[in-house]
Specification:
Length: about 375
């Protein structure tokens, strides 16, 4: 593989093929470029149809590096950021969290305002170590913060300090050796199959559609409200692409995902029939089945389903387990999967959990089998 080097510091362009350099202008393969980024890291880019386009990109990168201020040395970074107050550092760090959805940013701001800043806001960044982090956890415990809040605040602090550690502010990671708060979600209240059958027919047709999507495909409330006929990507696959966001009442990206990302879930035949039945009966707007009743231009509102759920519970006409909320219909989906031997890794992926640990913490009591049962199975295999 030959390569052509331009002026000093600009990088090189080449073709990763068997043709000699003299044939590049007629060769169908695309050009690639290689250069050093502003941080000194060797970088490659591909997809340039002509030599001129490759050179133009190298020139653009070179000019950007020339116009940018000289990169700071490690000692300068440590001096600058080490003296920063935690609150000041976080505000700069937060500006780089462009991947966070609006709701996630609001949650972050709430944790900062009520927990992280009061305890750590004025602390210099170079003073953090494992004792400071552990002390912060104890402070939250003394203040009566719930375990879920403790866990979320700890995660945000860990993200900030990891960023500082990468800059070189700490010789040792201040999170090393710190035991994080042990958030253990309350056991989910799940309806039986008989109860679910009664629940799904207790409201209007939109209610039945939402309950089927939650209990049969594992959709979250807002994801079910955004159900779209165009998302039937196969006879047995539904693609979840968006949700109706509670705070904005608009369509937005899925939880834990960026705009445009999706997840595919198994689509039982009965749920597919419900979707098609509803679409045929009421029609769609740009493929959407559910819209605001008083203004079809707007997404279906969360309060529409919440109000129905409260009325159904208050009527006492349907057998609903004590403590069950609307979300319990999604819990039924997990229970149905796990009780029939579907791997928890698949369940976690289809439910859109951030990690399989979340699925395990919520539904571990539903996993079939026990130590005794496992011993019997293993013994049968050994005796065969």
């Amino acid at each position: 593989m030959a390569a052509r080097t331009l002026a000093r510091g600009m990088g090189t362009f080449f073709k990763d093929c068997e043709h000699p350099q003299s044939r590049w202008s007629k060769c169908p393969h695309e050009y690639k470029i290689r250069y050093r980024s502003a941080a000194g890291k060797q970088t490659e880019e591909s997809g340039f149809g002509t030599q001129d386009k490759a050179i133009a990109r190298l020139t653009e990168v070179y000019n950007q590096k020339k116009s940018a201020p000289q990169s700071q040395s490690k000692a300068e970074r440590i001096q600058k950021y080490g003296r920063m107050r935690f609150e000041e550092y976080v505000e700069e760090w937060k500006a780089g969290q462009r991947h966070l959805a609006a709701s996630s940013l609001r949650h972050l701001d709430s944790l900062l305002e009520h927990h992280l800043y009061p305890a750590l806001g004025s602390r210099r960044m170079n003073s953090f170590d494992h004792k400071v982090v552990d002390g912060f956890i104890r402070t939250m415990e003394r203040n009566g913060a719930g375990l879920a809040t403790q866990s979320n605040a700890f995660d945000k602090l860990r993200a900030v300090l990891l960023d500082a550690h990468r800059l070189g502010l700490f010789s040792d990671n201040p999170m090393d050796g710190v035991k994080p708060p042990q958030y253990d979600p309350a056991r989910a209240v799940i309806p039986s199959l008989e109860q679910l059958r009664a629940i799904r027919t207790a409201g209007d047709d939109a209610f039945k559609l939402v309950i089927d999507l939650m209990s049969g495909c594992g959709l979250r409330n807002g994801e079910a409200y955004a159900v779209n006929l165009n998302n039937l990507v196969a006879d047995d696959v539904y693609r979840i692409t968006e949700q109706v966001v509670l705070s904005t009442r608009k369509y937005g990206p899925l939880k834990h995902r960026k705009a445009g990302e999706y997840r595919d879930v198994p689509l039982p035949a009965r749920i597919r029939e419900t979707i098609q039945w509803y679409a045929e009966k009421y029609g769609t707007v740009d493929g959407y089945l559910l819209r605001q009743e008083t203004d079809p231009r707007k997404p279906y509102p969360h309060w529409g389903m919440d109000n129905q759920w409260r009325r159904i519970r208050a009527s006492g006409k349907v057998d609903i387990p004590e403590g069950m909320v609307l979300y319990g219909n999604r819990h039924f989906y997990a229970s149905n999967c796990l009780s029939h031997g579907i791997p928890i890794t698949g369940v976690a992926e289809w439910m859109g959990h951030k990690s399989v640990d979340v699925t395990f913490k919520i539904y571990r009591h539903l996993l079939p089998g026990s130590i005794g049962k496992a011993a019997q199975v293993l013994n049968m295999a050994l005796a065969a």
